[in-house]
Every structure is written in structure tokens, then in C-alpha cells.
Design brief:
Helix content: 55-70%
Number of domains: 1
Distance between the termini: 35 Å
Number of helices: 3
Radius of gyration: 17 Å
Strand order of the largest sheet: 1-2
Number of strands: 2
Strand content: 5-15%
Shape: globular
């Protein structure tokens, strides 16, 4: 049987430092999308409302992959 696991260990990210790196990458991608969208809206207003105008937000591959990861995590939490 293995010994105790440190509080900073995460089964997916390994160490707390890696989890912090993932968090920072998500925050950076979110900030870029937020800057392109403007004001926050209530999610039910968004889901039940019109699609709204098309807004181009240029994202690099890293940002797109980070956003996909975050969206998958969001789906798991619903």
C-alpha cells in the first residue's frame, strides 16, 4: 500500500503547481473571450435569448484547447 499523498497532489494534474498553471491558462483564455464579448449576462438570458451579433475573437491553438478543456469540465459539473 502506498504512503500518504500530499495535499498538493491532484490525480489529474499531479502537483498543485500544475493545477495552478492550468488555472492561469483558463483565466487567460477567459479574459480574452471576455474582452471580445463585453458585459456579462445572466446565463439563462443568454441560453433563452437571441444568438446576437457575430463577434470575431481570434484565438490561438493553445487558447482553443484550454477552452475546450474548460467546457468539458463545465459539462461534468452540470
Amino acid at each position: 500500500m502506498p504512503g500518504p499523498i500530499s495535499d498538493s497532489y491532484d490525480p489529474e494534474f499531479s502537483t498543485g503547481a500544475n493545477a495552478q498553471d492550468v488555472r492561469e491558462a483558463i483565466e487567460q483564455a477567459r479574459d480574452k473571450v471576455s474582452a471580445g464579448l463585453g458585459e456579462l449576462k445572466n446565463i439563462l438570458e443568454v441560453v433563452h435569448g437571441d444568438a446576437g451579433p457575430l463577434k470575431a475573437i481570434t484565438l490561438n491553438e493553445r487558447q482553443r484547447r484550454v477552452i475546450r478543456f474548460a467546457l468539458n469540465r463545465a459539462l461534468e459539473s452540470i
